[in-house]
């Protein structure tokens, strides 16, 4: 059972919904500069349309949660689409979603390194700590505090998630908003499954504490 019911498809009743933010979406076809010159063949265009475009909403959501800014997230997704288009020939048919999100995540951190190097330094320091002290536990086990999440106001929940360290935040979004498995999250973030579970549990605990303080 998932502790934090943030998924778009969840039926858990809350006062709001945690997704891309109030009234925001990203479901249009990206503008690829010089697309006609870049395409090695029509097959690449067709595969890009079939395998990548369906996941642009999730791509934008992840980019926005990492960067914390709508305009920055759009820039990240545009750049990620260019990278995905250039590499589309290496993608085998099947589930393209983790592949797309991996490119988006890597592009977002490249953007952060260029524009907010201090934020990336914190993430890298946290990864070192987590790698040494990963404690998988059971992040999906039910606790008495779970009800706080279900009843939390969407704005309060979003604020609590945004206050998390970036590594915890992206793990929660990949799991609780986008529904990736632990293995898929490990592939996207490049860390062991145990670290994924540890980050998820710790991130949820911080959110629960934050919501609890607001409730009290």
If you had to describe this structure to a student in words, what would you say it looks like?
With 216 residues, the chain is mainly alpha-helical. It has one domain: PhyR, sigma-like (SL) domain (Butyryl-CoA Dehydrogenase, subunit A, domain 3). It is built from eleven helices and no strands. Helix 4 crosses helix 5 and helix 8 packs across helix 11. It is globular, with a radius of gyration of 18 Å. The N terminus is likely disordered.
Primary descriptors:
single chain; 216 residues; mainly alpha; Butyryl-CoA Dehydrogenase, subunit A, domain 3; 63% helix; globular; disordered N terminus
Q: Tell me the distance between the termini.
A: 26 Å
The helix-and-strand class reads mainly alpha
Which CATH class applies here? Mainly Alpha
Number of helices, counting only DSSP H or I runs of 4 residues or more: 11
Just name the CATH architecture.
Up-down Bundle
So what's the overall shape? globular
CATH superfamily: PhyR, sigma-like (SL) domain
Count of β-strands: 0
CATH topology: Butyryl-CoA Dehydrogenase, subunit A, domain 3
Helix content: 55-70%
Sheet with most strands: none
Give the integer mean of the pLDDT values: 75
Query: What is the CA-based Rg, rounded?
Result: 18 Å
Task: Please mark out the parts with pLDDT under 50 across 5 or more consecutive residues, or reply none.
Answer: 1-17, 33-40
Outline:
With 216 residues, this protein is mainly α. Helices cover 63% and strands 0% of the residues.
Structural topology:
Layout: H1 35-38, H2 42-51, H3 56-67, H4 70-86, H5 97-115, H6 117-133, H7 146-151, H8 154-162, H9 166-177, H10 182-189, H11 193-215
């Amino acid at each position: 059972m998932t502790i934090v019911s943030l998924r778009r498809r969840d039926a858990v009743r809350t006062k709001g919904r945690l997704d891309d933010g109030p009234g925001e979406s990203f479901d249009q076809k990206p503008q690829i500069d010089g697309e006609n010159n870049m395409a090695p063949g029509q097959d690449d265009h067709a595969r890009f349309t079939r395998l990548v475009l369906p996941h642009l909403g999730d791509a934008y959501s992840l980019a926005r949660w990492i960067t914390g800014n709508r305009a920055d997230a759009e820039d990240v997704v545009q750049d990620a689409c260019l990278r995905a288009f250039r590499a589309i020939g290496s993608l085998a048919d099947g589930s393209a979603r983790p592949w797309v999100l991996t490119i988006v995540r890597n592009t977002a951190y490249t953007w952060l390194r260029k524009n907010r190097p201090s934020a990336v330094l914190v993430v890298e320091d946290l990864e070192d700590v987590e790698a040494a002290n990963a404690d998988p536990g059971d992040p999906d086990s039910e606790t008495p505090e779970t009800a706080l999440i279900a009843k939390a106001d969407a704005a309060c929940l979003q604020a609590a998630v945004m206050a998390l360290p970036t590594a915890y935040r992206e793990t929660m979004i990949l799991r609780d908003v986008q529904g990736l498995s632990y293995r898929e999250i490990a592939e996207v973030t490049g860390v062991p499954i145990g670290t994924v579970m540890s980050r998820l549990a710790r991130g949820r605990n911080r959110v629960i504490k934050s919501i609890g303080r607001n409730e009290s």
